[in-house]
Write a structure and sequence with these properties.
Elements: E1 7-8, E2 25-30, H1 44-58, E3 65-67, H2 90-103, E4 110-114, H3 120-132, E5 137-140, H4 153-162, H5 180-190, H6 192-195, H7 209-230
Parallel strand pairs: 1-3, 2-3, 2-4, 4-5
Helix pairs in contact: 1-4, 1-7, 2-3, 4-7
Length: 232
């Protein structure tokens, strides 16, 4: 069966947004540009967020959901010790998300499909402000039971499923594998580099594309269910 095409906002002319039976929901993939160990690309979080947002769009009728161009730089200060990382910081990202939703009053609401854990605080604050303004916004965060924290088995498996050509396999190596709760104090003080010189929090050495496809499927189902319950 051929997957349904997603409605990509950036490919539309504005009159096309009024052809649907109701105003579309805007899905905004929120990624990052930050180190993901020596083996994964800097835009890993963005690629994952885009894949999930497209999966959301494919799960509804054509035109019901418009997928926005991704936010590719966000709050990544914890990775600032590594070359390639770019970050706006939490306060700027919060303001950016608020202004984005304010500008999207033509939609029936905005769902932020978050691919980067460092955006959590900015998203919570933004949604709180928007709710107080009677605007509709949902911040969705992927949760993988048993998954590792950063550039480990989980993210590497997903990237092997999404873009295997971008995974530098001869550089795949384990980083710190302790539970994040045991590292959080040092992480808050000195960022990821203070606890993991290679930037990995987890063990990607046994990652597989099959596991990555399974994770993407489960996360897409969770996202669709969350949106379905919220967007009525």
């Amino acid at each position: 069966m051929t997957a349904k095409a997603t409605t990509q906002l950036g490919e539309l002319a504005w009159p096309e947004l009024y052809q649907a039976t109701r105003r579309p929901l805007l899905a905004v993939p929120v990624g990052s540009c930050e180190q993901h160990g020596p083996h994964l690309p800097l835009d890993t979080d963005t690629r994952i967020a885009v894949a999930l947002a497209n999966g959301l769009g494919q799960s509804f009728e054509p035109g019901e959901i418009a997928v926005a161009p991704p936010i590719t730089i966000s709050a990544s200060g914890e990775h600032s010790g590594f070359p390639g990382t770019l970050s706006f910081g939490t306060e700027v990202v919060e303001t950016m998300l608020v202004e984005l939703v304010r500008s999207a009053d033509w939609s029936s609401g905005v769902v932020f499909v978050n691919g980067h854990g460092g955006n959590a605080e900015a998203m919570r604050r933004a949604v709180s402000r928007l709710t107080s303004e009677s605007r509709r916004a949902l911040a969705w965060f992927p949760r993988v039971p048993g998954g590792d924290a950063h550039a480990g088995h989980t993210e590497t498996s997903i990237m092997l499923a999404l873009a295997p050509e971008l995974v530098v396999r001869h550089r795949v190596q384990a980083g710190r594998t302790e539970p994040i709760s045991e590292l959080i104090a040092d992480l808050r003080l000195g960022g990821v580099k203070a606890v993991s010189p290679n930037g990995v929090l987890g063990d990607p050495t046994q990652a597989t594309a099959a596991h990555g496809r399974s994770v993407i499927t489960r996360l897409t189902i969770d996202l669709v269910n969350a949106v379905d319950e919220w967007w009525v």
